[in-house]
């Protein structure tokens, strides 16, 4: 399968994983390995920057899995920029999953502050992957601001509700010049496959794997679903039709 | 302010409406995906008792989906037992003739050293209400002192004004716990006959003032044992709904401490106070599950007031944070281990032992889930 390029990096896997909500670090590590992902996102707030051997970050090093620090908890651009700088230092990467959610209940991303932060952070040399609503206009604006990819949500984060925003995702995918990674809401491998079938470049999954009874098997299922969805997209899925084709087309008389 | 909404309700009518909930109401509440206050009433009503297992299954599922298999760890640090209030259920009450103690800077740091050794990164500062000695200035200084050692600092002290909260937030305060104790306005006076705390409305409006100060998290709750717990919990839920609408950028947690025996001075043994409105273990589990079904995103914490075996089982039922290895007396960790505690804890295991218990159940104890940089005031 062809590789995915984001900024200066090349990925063989189009599945990214979140590292929260697992019952133990060992369980998380096993799921990550089973998924064959090449990039995981880690919340800065969970990292103990003062201890050099932070178990959350150090367990990925031997496997050469890229770390994508996220700014979960930031309520505005200022906080996110500050957190980004610390994350860059703590995790030794200029890649950043930009999350700004002033609403701690549903963790809805703030479009205005995210755009503002993207402009600033791009100037500072960050590779930014912003978590956003499935808002096609915002995606174009982020592109102009220098984002490396966009991460529109499929449904409210952590809900496992699937691709509720599919109509908007399709527009985003059609218009985007940067990779589109469907982020929140993917609840089942079939959702991930669907996202890939409509042309998403990658998906990010956390809750669906972490809250499964068997995270390792679920990670494997997601790996397969993402691969098969991508292959289906490349093969070209047959267009579905709403109307039946009339046996006597209205314009048939023209042929007479 | 919440007072305006609160005044529209009558305690007795609410209490009766909860008791009148039927098995049908409970079944309807269980079937829904989004539950409202009426559903909450049904779930905490006696009619829901036969459905406890079903509630527990849903509660566990919802909690795991939102919070994962994790338990947040925090520990209280009692800074002072000086208090100008009389609270009939509290060992720090003004009329209890105990030796009073307020930690000095050096003593605070000594306590901090012990707490850090236990692995904690989230500390809850607790004091009585003594504005001369442990007023806003003292608290500001204390937060400044301990901030370098903790990512997350919470506070459980007397209600303050909005401007005070703003100043404390600037020092790095993240969360304030302020329990109404009881929403029964008439009887509140009976439990709090003297001191600033006797002002029911000032306490009731504290979360409003915190919301206006843009605090990150507010902890709500009532003391279980004073009045009818069902009615008190309904009012807590009403309060929460109001706050979530008005201060939508703030996070919320609830707690429902069951009153514990307290030691009264002059006697050698612990006086076992009898509380009229006792809540049994089944009921507490029902309450935890009802809260989870009512509000999926809410944080629920359980302190060392509860017993070891019971706490072990709660890990999987809907709670999200736990304290362990706690001392409820100022200086209890290092400075003056024998000073009088606020209440006697039940679960006496060390933080390490409790963390081990959590891990054994396939859950991860989380010590750090916040960063100083978030919410830091930047110039």
Automatic annotation (TrEMBL), chain A:
Family annotation (Pfam families): ThiG
Biological processes, Gene Ontology terms: thiamine diphosphate biosynthetic process
Binding residues for 1-deoxy-D-xylulose 5-phosphate: 158, 184-185, 206-207
Top-level taxon in the UniProt lineage: Bacteria
InterPro entries to which the protein is assigned, alphabetical: Aldolase_TIM (IPR013785), Thiazole_synthase_ThiG (IPR033983), ThiG (IPR008867)
GO cellular component assignments: cytoplasm
Gene Ontology MF terms in the entry: thiazole synthase activity
Primary location recorded for the protein, binned into one broad class: cytoplasm
Compartments it resides in: Cytoplasm
Active-site positions on this chain: 97
Pathway assigned to this chain's UniProt record: Cofactor biosynthesis; thiamine diphosphate biosynthesis
Catalytic activity: [ThiS sulfur-carrier protein]-C-terminal-Gly-aminoethanethioate + 2-iminoacetate + 1-deoxy-D-xylulose 5-phosphate = [ThiS sulfur-carrier protein]-C-terminal Gly-Gly + 2-[(2R,5Z)-2-carboxy-4-methylthiazol-5(2H)-ylidene]ethyl phosphate + 2 H2O + H(+)
Record keywords: Cytoplasm, Schiff base, Thiamine biosynthesis, Transferase
Domain Thiazole synthase ThiG: 6-249
SUPFAM superfamilies in alphabetical order: ThiG-like (SSF110399)
PANTHER family: THIAZOLE SYNTHASE
Family: Belongs to the ThiG family.
Subunit structure: Homotetramer. Forms heterodimers with either ThiH or ThiS.
Record's function text: Catalyzes the rearrangement of 1-deoxy-D-xylulose 5-phosphate (DXP) to produce the thiazole phosphate moiety of thiamine. Sulfur is provided by the thiocarboxylate moiety of the carrier protein ThiS. In vitro, sulfur can be provided by H(2)S.
Record's protein name: Thiazole synthase
Source organism: Pedobacter nutrimenti
UniProtKB/TrEMBL annotation, chain B:
Annotated SMART domains: BATS
Protein origin, superkingdom: Bacteria
Pfam families: BATS, Radical_SAM
Residue ranges of coiled coil: none
Classification via Gene3D superfamilies: Aldolase class I (3.20.20.70)
Known cofactor(s): [4Fe-4S] cluster
Keywords, comma-separated and alphabetical: 4Fe-4S, Iron, Iron-sulfur, Metal-binding, S-adenosyl-L-methionine
CDD domains the record matches: Radical_SAM
GO molecular function: 4 iron, 4 sulfur cluster binding; catalytic activity; iron ion binding
Transmembrane segments annotated in the record for this chain: none
A biological process from GO: thiamine biosynthetic process
Domain Radical SAM core, chain residue ranges per copy: 69-303
InterPro entries registered for this protein in UniProt: Aldolase_TIM (IPR013785), BATS_dom (IPR010722), rSAM (IPR007197), rSAM_sf (IPR058240), ThiH (IPR012726), ThiH/NoCL/HydG-like (IPR034428)
NCBIfam families named in the record: thiH
PANTHER family given in the database record: 2-IMINOACETATE SYNTHASE
Protein name in UniProt: 2-iminoacetate synthase
């Amino acid at each position: 399968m062809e590789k995915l390029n984001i900024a200066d990096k090349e990925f063989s896997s189009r599945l990214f994983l979140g590292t929260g909500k697992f019952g133990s670090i060992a369980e998380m590590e096993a799921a990550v390995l089973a998924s064959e992902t090449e990039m995981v996102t880690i919340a800065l707030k969970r990292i103990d920057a003062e201890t050099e051997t932070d178990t959350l970050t150090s367990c990925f090093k031997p496997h050469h899995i890229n770390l994508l620090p996220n700014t979960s908890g930031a309520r505005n651009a200022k906080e996110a920029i500050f957190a980004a700088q610390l994350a860059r230092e703590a995790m030794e990467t200029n890649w950043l999953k930009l999350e700004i959610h002033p609403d701690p209940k549903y963790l809805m991303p703030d479009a205005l502050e995210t755009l503002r932060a993207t402009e600033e952070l791009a100037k500072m040399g960050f590779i930014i992957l912003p978590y956003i609503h499935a808002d096609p206009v915002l995606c174009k604006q982020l592109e102009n601001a220098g984002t490396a990819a966009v991460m529109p949500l499929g449904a409210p984060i952590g809900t496992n509700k699937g691709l509720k925003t599919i109509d908007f995702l399709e527009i985003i995918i059609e218009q985007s010049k940067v990779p589109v990674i469907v982020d929140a809401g993917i609840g089942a491998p079939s959702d991930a496959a669907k996202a890939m079938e409509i042309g998403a470049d990658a998906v990010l999954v956390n809750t669906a794997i972490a809250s499964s009874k068997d995270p390792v098997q679920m990670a494997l299922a997601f790996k397969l679903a993402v691969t098969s969805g991508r292959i289906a997209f490349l093969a070209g899925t047959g267009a579905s039709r709403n109307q039946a084709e009339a046996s006597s087309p209205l314009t048939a008389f023209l042929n007479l | 302010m919440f007072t305006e909404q609160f005044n529209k309700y009558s305690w007795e009518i609410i209490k009766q409406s909860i008791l009148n909930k039927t098995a049908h109401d409970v079944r309807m509440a269980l079937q829904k995906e989004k539950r409202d206050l009426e559903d909450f009433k049904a779930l905490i009503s006696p009619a829901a008792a036969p459905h406890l297992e079903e509630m527990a299954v849903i509660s566990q599922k919802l909690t795991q989906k939102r919070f994962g298999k994790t338990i947040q760890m925090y520990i209280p640090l009692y800074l002072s037992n000086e208090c100008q209030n009389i609270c009939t259920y509290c060992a720090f009450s003004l009329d209890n003739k105990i030796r009073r103690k307020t930690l000095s800077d050096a003593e605070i740091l000594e306590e901090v050293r012990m707490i850090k050794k236990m692995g904690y990164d989230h500390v809850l500062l607790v004091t009585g209400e003594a504005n001369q000695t442990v007023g806003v200035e003292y608290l500001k200084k204390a937060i400044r002192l301990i901030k370098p050692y903790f990512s997350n600092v919470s506070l459980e002290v007397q209600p303050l004004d909005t401007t005070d909260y703003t100043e404390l937030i600037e020092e790095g305060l993240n969360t304030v716990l302020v329990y109404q104790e009881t929403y029964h306005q008439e009887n509140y006076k009976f439990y709090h006959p003297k001191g600033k705390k006797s002002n029911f409305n000032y306490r009731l409006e504290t979360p409003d003032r915190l919301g206006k100060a843009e605090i990150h998290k507010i902890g709500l709750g009532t003391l279980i044992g004073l009045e009818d717990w069902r009615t008190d919990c309904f009012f807590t839920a009403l309060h929460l709904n109001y706050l979530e609408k008005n201060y939508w950028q703030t996070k919320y947690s609830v707690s429902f401490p069951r009153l514990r025996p307290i030691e009264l001075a002059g006697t050698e043994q612990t006086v076992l106070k009898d509380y009229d409105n006792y809540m049994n273990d089944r009921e507490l589990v029902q309450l935890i599950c009802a809260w989870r079904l009512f509000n999926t995103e809410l944080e629920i914490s359980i302190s060392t007031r509860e017993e070891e075996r019971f706490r072990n089982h709660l890990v999987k039922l809907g709670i999200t944070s736990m304290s362990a290895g706690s001392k409820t007396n100022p200086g209890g960790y290092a400075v003056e281990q024998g000073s009088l505690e606020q209440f006697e804890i039940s679960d006496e295991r060390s933080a390490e032992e409790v963390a081990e218990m959590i891990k054994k159940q396939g859950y991860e104890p989380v010590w750090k889930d916040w960063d100083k940089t978030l919410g830091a005031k930047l110039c």
